[in-house]
């Protein structure tokens, strides 16, 4: 029974990230804040969003999102504010333009290039005759001697 309670507590840890004092009174604004938080990276925890992170910096980011929403910013303005302040690294899914476009395309291009190199290698290898030369009489005699035939 204790193991189950510990397991449930561990699975619920991300739910404890947003503190009760952070939650906005307006349910619509809170829903928007939660949705925005799911797409923002915790700068301490790497690939964890700020909505699930317990880090102090994630809390500061959650509060900044809520402050901007209460101030009347729309979602794009909130994101722009955070990107201006912390850089595009704060986005879990960075925009695919500019320098980021190179990063987005590099993986598929390299995989395609590697596949073409492998295909070329296999085609050349298939066309080459790799049969060994037949055994000479001396080699055949030595083989028979070793195998006892």
From TrEMBL:
Biological process terms in GO annotation: cytochrome complex assembly
Residues passing through the membrane, by range: 101-122
Keywords: Cytochrome c-type biogenesis, Heme, Iron, Membrane, Metal-binding, Signal, Transmembrane, Transmembrane helix
Signal peptide: 1-17
Keyword Glycoprotein part of the UniProt annotation: no
Domain CcmH/CycL/Ccl2/NrfF N-terminal: start-end pairs: 6-146
GO molecular function, one term: metal ion binding
Domain of life: Bacteria
Chain segments annotated as coiled-coil in the UniProt record: none
Function: Possible subunit of a heme lyase.
Similarity section: Belongs to the CcmH/CycL/Ccl2/NrfF family.
PANTHER family, alphabetized: CYTOCHROME C-TYPE BIOGENESIS PROTEIN CCMH
Protein name: Cytochrome c-type biogenesis protein
């Amino acid at each position: 029974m204790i193991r189950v309670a510990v397991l449930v507590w561990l699975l619920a840890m991300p739910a404890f990230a947003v503190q009760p004092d952070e939650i906005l009174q307006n349910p619509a604004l809170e829903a928007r804040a939660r949705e925005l938080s799911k797409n923002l990276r915790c700068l301490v925890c790497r690939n964890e969003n700020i909505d699930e992170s317990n880090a102090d910096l994630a809390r500061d980011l959650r509060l900044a999102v809520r402050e901007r929403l209460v101030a009347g910013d729309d979602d794009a303005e909130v994101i722009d504010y955070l990107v201006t302040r912390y850089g595009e690294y704060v986005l879990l899914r960075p925009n695919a333009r500019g320098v980021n476009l190179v990063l987005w395309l590099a993986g598929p291009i390299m995989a395609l290039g590697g596949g073409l190199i492998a295909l070329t290698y296999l085609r050349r290898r298939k066309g080459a005759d790799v049969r060994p030369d037949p055994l000479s009489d001396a080699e055949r005699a030595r083989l028979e001697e070793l195998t006892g035939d």
